[in-house]
Specification:
The protein has about 80 residues and is mostly helical. The longest helix has about 35 residues. It has 3 helices and no strands. It has a domain of about 50 residues. About 65% of the residues lie in helices and about 0% in strands. Keywords: Membrane, Transmembrane, Transmembrane helix. It comes from Ruegeria pomeroyi (strain ATCC 700808 / DSM 15171 / DSS-3). This is DUF2842 domain-containing protein.
């Protein structure tokens, strides 16, 4: 079932304002846990982890954001 343009716009707003900040907290907590577990991580390893986690969040949500910045195709105006 495809989401309407209006529904995708609303869900993208919810994702950006609620889910993404929660995901950032989880990502930083995970990295801090790894840093404590392995007695410090090299900066390059932390960078790779943050880049990977930064890309990972968008993959399942890509359909929600697709076309949100465009005009509503069903609008008759």
């Amino acid at each position: 079932m495809a989401l309407s343009h209006k529904a995708r716009r609303r869900w993208s707003l919810v994702v950006l304002l609620v889910a993404l900040p929660l995901y950032i907290v989880v990502a930083v907590t995970l990295t801090d846990w790894l840093r404590a577990r392995f007695d410090g991580l090299p900066m390059l390893v932390e960078l790779v982890i943050f880049i990977g986690l930064g890309i990972l969040w968008i993959l399942p949500l890509k359909p929600v954001f697709r076309g949100v910045g465009q005009a509503d195709p069903d609008d008759k105006g």
